[in-house]
Amino acid sequence: MTTTFAQLGVPSRLADALAAQGITSPFPVQAATIPDGLAGRDVCGKAPTGSGKTFAFGLPILAKVEKAKRGRPRALVLAPTRELAEQIKKELAPLARNVGRHVFAVYGGVGYGGQISAMRKGVDVLVACPGRLEDLIEQGVVDLSDADLVVLDEADRMADMGFMPSVMRLLDQTSPVRQTLLFSATLDGDIAKLSKRYQTDPVRHEAASVETDELDAVHHFWLVDHHDRTRHTADLINEFGKSIVFTRTRRGADRLAKQLEKLGVRAVAMHGGRSQNQRQRALDAFSSGKARALIATDVAARGIHVDEVASVIHFDPAGDHKDYLHRSGRTARAGATGTVVTLVTHEQKRDVLKMQRDIDIDAPLARPDVTSLVDSGHRIGERRPNGPSPRSERSRSDRPNRDVAGKNRASKRQERHDRPVAGSQRVYVANLPWKTTDGDLHSMFSRYGIVEGAAVVTNRKTGRSKGFGFVEMAAKDAGEAIRALNGSSLDGRDLLVKVARPRN
Ligand code: ADP
Ligand code: MG
To answer: Among 279, 288, 346, 475, whose CB has the most other CB atoms within 10 angstroms?
Structure first.
């Protein structure tokens, strides 16, 4: 039985507005935390990126928030970066209109004028980055003492970025009788202290961590020459489409974007050295598909959600396993699958192998080859058949065997496609619009012959399409279908259609 938002207690005016956007069944973190949030409990939630935290805290807030007096918001959402703050506002503002409330975001890097006049008019739900909010309070523009609904989003990142003292000063100014919702990828260290000091009898919800369950991506590591990295990056983007590329430095990001443009790949850079306007323009160009590559540094890309990012490329390897997971979490979000490639130079080999052990990923440093990527690759926690184990025997036996988990995960329909039928061919179709159904796939291919089976692969938990699927048909017809359909456009997306590699 699947629950609905209404069954969780979300008022119909909000649930109906969500349904109008096609959002009808709550994600696990939402199902877990919304009832407690509505009941007024403090919530301490651990959930990976892309799990749907914004609605998890946003819906209870919008259901309960009172109308604010000028300059005195009733609900406060603190977020680490301007992009995140803007994204939360964008997601909640249209819903808020249905309950007659106003959401606004304040952050640094832009002028004060618009923010001051918005606050003077009255903001019910204020989304804010800590630094700018403190500025506005100092200027007498904002007073937090009416804020009795408070959210800390991505609290671990705020701590990493040095915002802890600021966050505490701000919390101290909110209403002492308040409900505090805290969301974070980790709940230890500073975050545990924060929870202890500012929450009252919090209910703790832990969704599975990104590391093992939620990040449904395949990972590759390529051993490359330093001066070939740009070319390999261009090849990857040409193969996959929409990609986010990570560099270590801001200058590196700008340089790579320019070099990619020279190779004919539309690319935009986003990092902390650019103005808010430039960053927003870059993000818009990338979201809309005008640019195929977004080149970003770690901090700039944190929490950014862009739908249908096909691949993440670590142009410079991540600094550690945490950054690796955060970066890689930009793809394979919300039930989509993704491909992650790290470019490794000879000098970086040792560090990367160590990082692999920390991630619990067992992948060879392979020779660059775009054609080998699509349905091969390595999943976190999965062992190569006879390969060396990056983990000790003990911890290996602690975790579920990934091969078995993988089998359970596949639906019955998919399994049927694993079994070869004599004379028939399995065809891999990628870059499908999310709404494509099995029936759509079936009719698309049946123009070229009798289709024995067609299935879009979906995420077991969320039921959402992963953007690729398999079709089984006579080998001779399959060849023709591939020639006709590969590169053709479906709802503005260029399909990738090719012979599926046999599964082993
Ligand atoms: P997080 O903050 O945990 O990283 P978001 O709140 O940004 O994740 O959600 C990720 C994406 O999933 C967003 O595009 C959001 O609109 C979408 N989403 C959230 N909840 C649902 C749902 N119940 N059904 C379908 N899509 C959802
Ligand atoms: Mg979020």
So the answer is: 279
In this predicted model, what pLDDT tens digit does every residue of 401-436 receive, in sequence order? 333 333 333 333 333 333 445 678 889 888 888 788
Q: Is the CB of 49 under 6 A from ligand 1?
A: yes
* Mean model confidence pLDDT for the chain: 84
Q: What is the pLDDT of residue 275?
A: 78
Same domain, yes or no: 192 and 226? no
CATH code: domain of residue 163:
3.40.50.300
Domain that holds residue 306: 217-386
Whether residues 85 and 191 fall in one domain: yes
Using DSSP, state whether 11 is helix, strand or coil.
Answer: coil
Handedness of CA 21, 26, 28, 30 (dihedral sign): positive
Is 21 inside a domain boundary? Answer: yes
Q: Give bridge partners of residue 243 from the DSSP assignment.
A: 293, 311
Indicate if ligand 1 lies below 6 Å from the C-beta of 51: yes
Please report the sign of the dihedral spanned by the C-alpha atoms of residue 385, residue 389, residue 394, residue 398. negative
Q: Cβ(27) to ligand 1 under 6 A?
A: yes
Nearest to 160 by CA among 81, 273, 251: 81
- Of 285, 255, 284, 254, the closest CA to residue 271 belongs to 254
**Torsion angle of C-alpha atoms 26, 28, 33, 38, degrees rounded to 10:** 10
More confident residue, 162 or 385: 162
User: Does residue 135 have a pLDDT over 80?
Assistant: yes
